[in-house]
Specification:
This protein has helices spanning 2-18, 35-38, 44-56, 93-103, 129-139, 156-170; strands at 31-33, 66-68, 74-77, 83-85, 107-113, 143-147, 175-178. It has one domain (29-178): TIM Barrel (Alpha-Beta Barrel), CATH 3.20.20.70. The protein is 38% helix and 16% strand. β3 and β4 (83-85) form a beta hairpin.
């Protein structure tokens, strides 16, 4: 029951912000996510191939518009704390990849985590929410899957609200998808 109340609170709290973007997620977002098939075995070439496939095999016409890169795309943060994609896996960078996906008439999604590390042990967004949201907006990201691993000492409502507000502050319409895979079970 507590879990249901928390989910309702988060959903209702988010709805007031969604009004800024009149055409954002009017129906449940449909797309493809890299995790179930590829887990951490992802790279730029694979994502480009998936974009090509979605644009040509009828998925796009059927309403599947989001191509979501899950965990393990992360490289490291620079001296200013800005997250960069893994340079060998994503050599052109996320902005170029986003431009490619958008050129196919699709939208690009990305993954992060409320904790200091993602479920796959990569850098999470804890303490960098506003910076990460700005970076995602600069890259042209359209969807954020936000996980709950390595977040044991965080308050779920506070952590999710902080990222929601950070995304909203960018001015870019980004679908915010809350994932509850972690072991803290918010």
């Amino acid at each position: 029951m507590k879990r249901l109340l928390l989910l309702l609170t988060l959903a209702l709290g988010t709805s007031t912000y969604a009004q800024k973007f009149a055409d954002l997620a009017l129906t449940p977002p449909m797309g493809w996510n890299s995790w179930n098939k590829f887990a951490c075995n992802i790279n730029e070439q694979l994502i480009r191939e998936m974009a090509d496939a979605m644009a040509s095999n009828g998925m796009k016409e059927a309403g599947y518009q989001y191509l979501n890169i899950d965990d393990c795309w992360h490289g490291t943060r620079d001296a200013q704390g800005v997250m960069h994609p893994h340079p060998e896996r994503f050599p052109s960078g996320m902005k170029a990849l986003g431009d490619y996906v958008h050129s196919k008439g699709l939208k690009l999604g990305i993954y992060s985590d409320a904790g200091a590390k993602t479920c796959g042990g990569k850098p999470g967004s804890r303490g960098y929410e506003y910076q990460d949201a700005r970076t995602y907006a600069e890259w042209g990201i359209d969807y954020l899957k936000y996980d709950w691993c390595n977040a044991e000492d965080l308050n779920a409502k506070g952590a999710y609200t902080t990222m929601r507000d950070a995304l909203y502050a960018t001015g870019r319409p980004i679908v915010f998808s809350i994932c509850e895979w972690g072991n803290n079970k918010p």
